[in-house]
């Protein structure tokens, strides 16, 4: 019963025909769940199959050499499907000298098949049905049409070195341009130095100030966009020789924006228009209508939307907000957004915009909703839960013969399973207390207790948030997910090797 892993760990499923016979290889603990998934897929897709349950508890511990000693492939098999965790190891070389071949080739020879008929499925057997149907294939999300401008607020309050380091992180997250946000209360005498340092490291730079002196110094040092221009400074724009962002004098005054646009056009100043997105409570809905009106009036001009007024000024995680705003931009042909990530709930806004712009571009280009395209912005809850059937849990509890502990969390209940042990409850402290009163608990040392506490804490968090819990796997937090080591499997493998070494010594 291996844990789930990204789809990239598995190979493409075979094309199914009435002659297809798939031979699945698994361990004892995954047998019930695998058979359930394969039987459903067989009825749906019309293929025959066989399942070989290896004499090993956890399929993820299967090695190619061990597999060759136990593999039994019936006649008429068209493909052998191994657990996903075998993917990397079967490509390793086997043998020496002129006899060096991959383990995949040796397995294929033993099965009397060609190497391309030896496949590795998904790591988690509960994904077999989706894998066989091809639903795990990924869409092309490489294209986008929206520029991300990442603002560094109050940049002059930071050192040049810190600004450059922050700009590099923002670029790595997807920013196309770095916006130097100046301090309205104090002129930055070194703004040219800040700009030049960013340009030196390959950044495209915009300057965010109404101080014409700061603008001139920044533009001289390589800034190529000025935020922003209205009645107060539009007469100077022709002298700067760069693109500007035109805004109304006050957000709901489109007449003043028209006047600024007309002047800039007469002076042939390149521009993009931003009617100003207002926060909720200050005319948010009306400001969205202004974007549609400006797009109607000026179909030939580029537009920008500053989205920080919504993400920074709303008590809500920013990912969903960014997704919706970039969808509006894509539909309105607004091809640049200005964002910042100061408040903690919006601290990954640049990365969220990077993901969102690809999703919305694909959605509009292909005429499909942005669903089942990517899980990177599904951060709080998981897209789908994959519970085990009650029969599978009971079979697991009855089939375990070793003292390693398995943890399953679903339907508000944590199951702790080992040889002769099946504890259930929703309180990890109570479960551990009950475990320590059992005779079988003599193997729970401090390290083991820490591990169980850590995993049950993850399980509790998963159930509270509606997330999938898989033992020894990181909870999925979208693009913020950080992988974890397979602590339980590594521990078991290490102890097994130590046992073999002791036997050999004797």
Automatic annotation (TrEMBL):
Start and end residues of each Pterin-binding domain: 130-394
Feature: compositional bias, Basic and acidic residues: 495-506
Domain of life: Bacteria
Gene3D superfamilies attached to this UniProt entry: Dihydropteroate synthase-like
Pfam families: DUF6513 (PF20123)
Stretches the record annotates as Disordered: 486-506
Protein known as: Dihydropteroate synthase-related protein
Lineage: Bacteria, Pseudomonadati, Planctomycetota, Planctomycetia, Pirellulales
